[in-house]
Design brief:
single chain, Jelly Rolls, Arc Repressor Mutant, subunit A, 9 helices, 7 strands, 47% helix, transcription regulation
Length: 274
Amino acid sequence: MSSAIRQIPLDTATRHHSHDYHQIVIALAGRADFDIEGLGGTIEAFCGCIVPANHLHYYAGTGNNRQLILDLPDDALALTGHHHELARLFDAPRFFTLDAPLKQFLGFVVAEMNQLALEGPVPALHQERLATTLLGSLHARLAGDETGEMHHRRIDLRALDRYIDDHLARRFKVADLAAFACLSETHFTERFRAQTGMSPWQYVMRRRLEASRQLLMRSRLPLSEIAALTGFAHQSALSRAYRKHYGHPPSQTRRHVSEISSPNLHHLTAKSAH
């Protein structure tokens, strides 16, 4: 999947979903309401929101609305190579407002897309270039500027692990983890990535998946209950994330454990019979 830029209205009925690519939504006209993993907000003309991959989000447009939407997979040109720093935009959901220069550039993007659309499908490489420029401008404005001694303080990952594991069933926001570490959200995210090489969301997701794997191996709980216990919104969300991380569905893990334990159980049964 390559980056894609599209202009659409959002349904006025409340919808919800998640997807395995990042997304930026910028209102061109009208308004829309979003709730991204518990972070709620409203976007109007020249305001927008960042939806990281695999974040469950609810949304609804109001009246005659029109949104510019950027879909960005992890391996998009705009997020890799020389532009890898731009991936930090998607460490956490957030809302933003465009300043005057970005409003002008957004107008150019819309006009360019409309003009090219008259000639046929907009070339993917052209969309990638437009997306990269827009992301670079957003990153320059939204990146944290905290400095000083606190900037270099290390996060106690063991304590954070205990906190995550004790509250695994809840929906975490980066702000929750930052508050536990006594840091601002921006500083926490920056320090966390420097220490672990991953975003806070990726880290929490890994612990959720590890916990779900242990429950699959050590219990007979139904998958829906395991999903609830490990913080997934629904069973299908766990299944998708599990397959992506481990390369196979949860059912295969459970089946493998059953195949291993069955011969042992048969051996013990036969031994007791003697």
